[in-house]
Amino acid sequence: MDKLNKDQIANLLPHREPMLLIDELTNIKKLKSATAIMNVKKDSFYVDGHFPGQPVMPGVLIVEAFGQAAAALTAHGIDKETYENKLVYLMSVEKARFRNPVIPDCKLELEIEAIRSHGKVWKYKGEAFVNKKKMADAMWSATIVDRK
Fold this sequence. Notes:
148 residues, alpha+beta, Thiol Ester Dehydrase, Chain A, 7-stranded antiparallel sheet, 3 helices, 7 strands, globular
């Protein structure tokens, strides 16, 4: 399977609405890369306040979507017992650049790649696009921890 829908993603991640940001994971190459789709809508929870009359998706939510996409890619690729009763925590964000504002209603495509892993620590990089125009890019690290 090289595609996951929102329900399948929800089975891999602890996030729930309104914080489950990614709608689909496609082009999955096991533990290597994938493309996440986020439908940025005019009725998204942050639109009314960021910014009234001129909505823009917050950059921190783009980074969060990167992290969710990476967590789904990793959880989908590893043995279920490895991530069952676990959480993936963001550890660091490096070189995050926001090149163009992401304006609702659009389809944000997040191309992510796992760069390396050392035990429970993973490093990723990603680029975000709307209509093939680069909106943001970043590198980040995450770790898998036990649920309390």
